[in-house]
């Protein structure tokens, strides 16, 4: 059984109405550890707010771990 998960990035100008920017699918092999680095950039003036949602399939006692680290360049 292969484990899959999605990361979705959204942008908004009012914090209520969200626009989906990108959906990224990640897959991993059975009983294996996978580390993936995703890089993307958006213009700072494009949106006032950003949010990220992550979903992962689980089976038995195996679950996914996610670590999101923002990087801001001024």
What is this entry, summarized?
The protein is mostly beta strands and 74 residues long. It is 0% helix and 38% strand.
Could you give the topology of this structure?
Layout: E1 3-12, E2 19-28, E3 49-56
Antiparallel strand pairs: 1-2, 1-3
Please characterize this protein's 3D structure.
By secondary structure, the protein is mainly beta. The chain has one domain (3-56). The protein has no helices and 3 strands. The protein has strands at residues 3-12, 19-28, 49-56. It has a 3-stranded antiparallel sheet, with no helix packed on it. β1 and β2 form a beta hairpin. It is elongated. It starts with a strand and ends in an 18-residue tail after the last strand.
Index terms:
single chain, mainly beta, three-stranded antiparallel beta sheet, 38% strand
Shape: elongated
What's the pLDDT, averaged over the residues? 68
Q: Which spans of ≥5 residues are poorly predicted at pLDDT below 50?
A: none
Give the terminus-to-terminus CA distance. 43 Å
How many discrete domains? 1
Strand pairing plus helix content: what structural class? mainly beta
- Share in β-strands: 35-45%
Helix content: under 10%
CA gyration radius, whole angstroms: 15 Å
The overall strand count is 3
User: Which oligomeric state applies?
Assistant: single chain
List the strand order in the largest sheet.
Answer: 2-1-3
Topology as a string of helices (H) and strands (E): EEE
**If helices are DSSP runs of H or I spanning 4 or more residues, what is the number of helices?**
0
Largest sheet: 3 strands, antiparallel
